[in-house]
Amino acid sequence: MTLLNYLDHRFLGGRNVSLIKLPFGAGQKKAGVEEAPEYIMNSGVDKDLKKLGYNVEVVDVPELKKAPAEEGPSSKQLYRPLYVSTACQRAKNVIAGELSKGSAVVNIGGDHSLGIATVSAVQEVHPTSCLLWIDAHADINTPDSSPSGNLHGCPVSLVLGYAKPVPPEFEWVKTCIDSGRVAYIGLRDVDPGERMLLRQHNIPFFTMHHVDKYGIGRVVEMAMAAINPDNLRPTHLSVDVDSVDPSIVPATGTRVKGGLTFREIMYICEAVAETRTLVALDVVEVNPLLSDKEGCESTISVARSVIRTSFGLQLV
Ligand SMILES: NC(=[NH2+])NCCC[C@H](N)C(=O)O
Ligand SMILES: [Mn+2]
Ligand SMILES: [Mn+2]
């Protein structure tokens, strides 16, 4: 009997994974999310991946912690647009560099404004890839529709080209993906402007209501059928840990009740691993300062499990 090796990737020749530490948190206002890469790395994710047979490279981008001297005026009511833009431009270059070597990347945030960088980099190197966004939130506010001014609520609108006019700080961001290659799972806190965009552009989204109604198996099947039929596209999986229920992921800045169970998030990662199309994984919004020791450990262990499972832990 021959088994398909779990390392047989459809798009990548080698078995190289770059773990990229992105200590950045100015896409929102709570301190601590920039400390997460250190905590997540210390949980042993590099050893996990080595055990699975990968060559692992750890890349740090420590300069993301340094804010520009002056924020400068912005036309919009955005929080720290210059800092977010500068950091994302830097992160994008580092991520694209790793992807260009033929490696898969794990982008360890940091807050979800880094999605501007991760999607830009993935689409530059793998221009046909699809994006599966796992989140309680849609993060598709435009600078105008954003209720908070926090850019971690806006990355998807920027890469889809929906932010009009584009704030001057983000003119470098290309419209690099189209609505037919983006799907969401886990939504349960969507702003009115976001709902309008999702409907207007026909973006497939599966809320927690759909997860309850159809079960996670059908939901993942429908989401992948919409954006990656027949696994012909590389996959970018962007996991905001607040997609998971706050009872097991309390250390995050925008908790919303009624999230994915541990098995449901693992199922998503397993199903993506099984496609052998994963080129990039984001793990964002862990904030170790927002919970007690136990809550923090639980959150980090979920982040660690997301990484090793997406890279094939359960595959035989
Ligand atoms: N990546 C996140 N946790 N995003 C939360 C976004 C919350 C809200 N929709 C906003 O725009 O501010
Ligand atoms: Mn979120
Ligand atoms: Mn998010």
Mean pLDDT: 96
- Helix count equals 9
What Rg, in angstroms, do the CA atoms define? 18 Å
Ligands, ions, cofactors: arginine, manganese (II) ion
CATH class category name: Alpha Beta
**Overall domain count:** 1
Strand-pairing-aware structural class: alpha/beta
CATH topology-level fold name = Arginase, Chain A
Secondary-structure element string? EHHEHEHEHEHEHEHEH
What does the main sheet amount to? 8 strands, parallel
CATH-defined superfamily: Ureohydrolase domain
Count of DSSP strands: 8
The helix fraction, in percent, is 25-40%
Tell me the strand percentage band.
5-15%
Low-pLDDT sequence parts: none
Task: Give me the side-by-side strand order of the main sheet.
Answer: 2-1-3-8-7-4-5-6
Distance between the termini: 13 Å
Q: What is the correct CATH architecture?
A: 3-Layer(aba) Sandwich
Q: What sort of overall outline do the alpha carbons produce when their principal axes are compared?
A: globular
Please, could you describe this protein's structure?
This protein has 316 residues and is α/β, with parallel strands linked by helices. The protein has one domain: Arginase, Chain A, CATH 3.40.800.10. Helices cover 35% and strands 14% of the residues. It has an 8-stranded parallel β-sheet, with helices on both faces. Strand 7, helix 8 and strand 8 form a beta-alpha-beta unit. It starts with 15 loop residues before the first strand and ends in a 6-residue tail after the last helix. GO terms for molecular function: arginase activity; manganese ion binding; ornithine carbamoyltransferase inhibitor activity; zinc ion binding. It catalyses: L-arginine + H2O = urea + L-ornithine. Its cofactor is Mn(2+).
